[in-house]
Amino acid sequence: MTDGNLNRGPGVRLKDVSRIYAGRAAVDAITLDIAAGSFVALVGSSGSGKSTLLKTINRLVKPNTGTIEIDGVNPTDAAYSVRRKIGYVIQGTGLFPHLDVAANIAMGLRIARVRDPQRRVNDMLKLVDLPLDYASRMPDTLSGGQRQRVGFARALATGPGLMLMDEPFGALDPVTRDNLSTAYRALHDRLGLTSIMVTHDMAEALLIADRIVVLDTGKIVADAAPVDLLNNGGGPIVNALIAVPRGQAERIAKMLT
Ligand SMILES: Nc1ncnc2c1ncn2[C@@H]1O[C@H](COP(=O)(O)OP(=O)(O)OP(=O)(O)O)[C@@H](O)[C@H]1O
């Protein structure tokens, strides 16, 4: 992925954020301070509240209690443009199948009233390393990895500083997954984005995030840099999550000696 003119990432502060469904807390009084420019992975078992927590930040889910600030601003403020300032990437991209690549990427540009959307579409294709003539291709003519690149291009088109990603590499084969996640990490660094990524995959989180937040039943059970999580472990939930990539790495290392 190559360079583009995008915003620097904001800091994100959640205080006592809860979301209750049918009397049960999917997100349970979470307080989290995310530094501008950092890359945070939200990890945890299925149903632990990762997606719900992520969606409280871009208001797809309204918290029952608590406050959220993005660079000190409450994203519910009328002046705050969530669509423009926050990019959102989901597993399988959510591209519109009846629209070509250019129209998919330009989707948010019209809403954000960006001038010269055609030029911006080309900039975004370059940013995610796709040939410019892919602009007229339909999503079903692309590989999964190419579609996911278009999903990133669409999310980045309005120049957001904050990227929220829900299993962004989850639908990809391991090689494409590794290539694209490494390319995204490089883009994150180059553009100074703030990235928050939900993943089931502890190995992926350890390899690309600066900080890993582990959730269980809506609560934070660990919050540490990858190296600290590996060296110091945590409670049984954290240790079980780390045991998988650690065991695989050890078994592969043994095969090499
Ligand atoms: N719209 C909803 N209505 C009712 N319950 C919900 C809703 N969204 C989420 N939940 C519940 O909240 C809890 C947390 O769900 P969430 O999707 O945040 O978990 P997750 O960690 O992202 O899971 P997964 O890894 O499987 O996607 C689950 O028990 C889920 O059933």
Automatic annotation (TrEMBL):
Highest taxon listed in the record's lineage: Bacteria
GO molecular function, one term: ATP hydrolysis activity
Domain ABC transporter: 12-242
InterPro entries, per the entry: AAA+_ATPase, ABC_SmlMolc_Importer, ABC_transporter-like_ATP-bd, ABC_transporter-like_CS, P-loop_NTPase
Keywords per UniProt: ATP-binding, Nucleotide-binding, Transport
GO biological process: quaternary ammonium group transport
SUPFAM superfamilies in the record: P-loop containing nucleoside triphosphate hydrolases (SSF52540)
A Pfam family hit: ABC_tran
Protein name, entry field: ATP-binding cassette domain-containing protein
